[in-house]
Amino acid sequence: MKPQALIAGVHEFPERKTAKSMLEIQALSARAALEDAGLGKKDVDGYFTVAANPGIGPLPIVDYLNLNPKYIDGTTIGGSSFVAHVNHAAAAIAEGRCRVALITYGSTSRSSGVAVGTRERISGDYLDQFEALYGTSTVGLYAMVARRHMHEYGTTSEQLAEIAVATRTHASLNPLALYRDPISVKDVLASPMISAPLHLLDCCVITDGGGALVVVHPDLARDLKKPPVRLLGSAEAIAHTSGGRRDFLVSAAAESGPRALAEAGLSPRDVSMAMIYDSFTITVLVTLEDLGFCKKGQGGAFVSGGRIALGGELPINTDGGGLSSNHPGMRGIFLVVEAVKQLRGECGERQVRDCRVALVHGTGGALGNRHSGATLILGRS
Amino acid sequence: MADYAKPLPEITAESKPFWDACARHELLVQKCRACGTVQYYPRGVCAACWSADVEWTPSAGRGRVYTFTVTYRTQARGFRDELPYVLAWIELEEGVQVMSNIVAVDPAKVAVGLPVRVTFDDVKEGFSIPKFTAA
Fold first, then answer.
1. What CATH superfamily is the domain A6-112+205-379?
2. How many C-beta neighbours within 10 Å does residue B10 have?
């Protein structure tokens, strides 16, 4: 049987706007996550980060940190990247390629004035000439999925707003969250329309930020400072334009979710809480359907009536999510940080009671053309 | 034609026949000679079977709006000056989806399922971009 990787340490960089550099954010986060694990710099032998680091992916940050990893991964598939890195770290650990994997992220989107959601979406590749010409933006691509969902299933703006409202309630319990004042469905609908049918409050915030995760071989369990979190299952997938024949209401989560759950031997009913990538409210709604928490098309009803809020059937995004807490451009790492803290019972006022199993799902790219999905099933010790 | 401030495609050998046809106000899709699959966007291989034996074939330029968004805020070059504009996926009669803009239609009148036809925006000499309008 393959060794089951453990998440031994986590850290979320606390600032939402910072004078620190991307590299500095990652160094401070790496040190804190290793301290959280009871490990140190000398223990790290695997390094995982995105190519969005300045320069050539992992090279500058590994140089800056003065590390000599035996295993390096720069997988960059958008906001889900760090969720996928956990999957990759677990595979590397199972194969004996490394024993202590460090995953880091740092971004200064807010202090450098990046309009993450509304900037021109040009990737510099062949596909631009059939898409970017038409004024694509990240929010526009997600808005098209929201519009189609409304058309096929009668989903309403009020139902989407329920997601933003529940998430803000959670943010009000997180001292680090960017926005903590409660909002109502009416507030969401009254906020400016960005790309119809998505309003400003259907969209994630823009912040600086970063963090780090430490994934280790199970042999190290006794050396750790805190009870580690077990990785019970993990999977990833990509959904794209499929040659021009795509059902845009089915996301990559429809593939990665069932595979991760099957590996864990669990079903959606076993999940105590979920961390669902919330670039926009529609991202959450489609993802919950595809993960099997409700049937396709019933996401609108599912997210209503407090079901996804603390105390509900499936609390999600208890940190306040990208919608209210932080979103520096690639939020996946925070999904893992919060899930681990919930499973360790460290969340104070926003703690999910008897949290045994957490599901993490990262989405990277855009639902409206191509995106990645990465799912983790995490269990407490 | 005024100076076109929006992004222009970087045409490569792979896509040149498509853009040459647009300049003649013809919309092309591709059909695989090996497996018969019709595809869009055009590329050097069939997306279904990876055969390099794909042929250009004219589209009737008619279809329906699969989904769309009316954009009110954007940083996209050129588009900032003509808000709101409509970004859409159109499903052509040939069965493939095309990303484009819906133009010369009141954004409030655009709906999923709206019948549309291709129209060409002549953005500079010898160069036209396929967009769609109400059929």
1. Thiolase/Chalcone synthase (3.40.47.10)
2. 11
